[in-house]
Specification:
Elements: E1 2-9, E2 13-18, E3 25-30, E4 34-41, E5 55-60, E6 71-73, E7 77-85, E8 88-93, E9 98-102, H1 105-125, H2 132-144, E10 145-147
Antiparallel strand pairs: 1-4, 2-3, 5-7, 6-10, 7-8, 8-9
Helix pairs in contact: 1-2
Length: 150
């Protein structure tokens, strides 16, 4: 669901405008009279399953990777995202021993995608000097993802 808000600002004014999301505010400096629209994407409870749940389970699939990234998902990557506080979330690929934080469920999920790609590339480049732990992580990642030539 998307909500559009329109604001009118007058010359040389500093406006503090309420944003209808947990009391956050937006500050805008304007030298000229301006009218603009802000669209807020509001997540629906159905998008993230149970709105009261503190954890969400997702799969990283090919469609989750940026289209310009040269990777192919061989097997979906299971991800659990846990809400730690109101604005702290942790996404984990437990089998691969990888975690990263974010400011929302989706932010943490997307951050983990990039973390997986970065770790995968780093381990592949340094394959000959990996210790036993990173070797196991690379073997797990190689079951899920492969780099492709473009």
């Amino acid at each position: 669901m998307t909500t559009a808000l329109t604001f009118n600002l007058w010359p040389s004014s500093l406006q503090t405008l309420p944003v209808p999301a947990k009391g956050h505010t937006m500050r805008i400096d304007s030298e000229y009279w301006t009218s603009f629209t802000v669209s807020l994407a509001l997540q629906s409870a159905s998008e993230f399953h149970d709105a009261t749940s503190r954890t969400r389970d997702w799969l990283i699939e090919q469609s989750d990777l940026p289209s310009d990234e040269p990777y192919q998902i061989l097997k979906p990557i299971p991800v659990r995202v846990r809400r730690d506080t109101d604005l702290e979330f942790t996404a984990t690929f437990q089998q691969g021993n990888l975690s990263i934080g974010g400011t929302s469920y989706r932010d943490a999920f997307q951050a983990l995608i990039y973390e997986i790609l970065d770790v995968f590339d780093h381990f592949r480049v340094n394959k000959d000097s990996l210790g036993p732990g990173p070797e196991r992580q690379l073997a797990i990642l190689e079951r899920h993802i492969v780099k492709i030539d473009r």
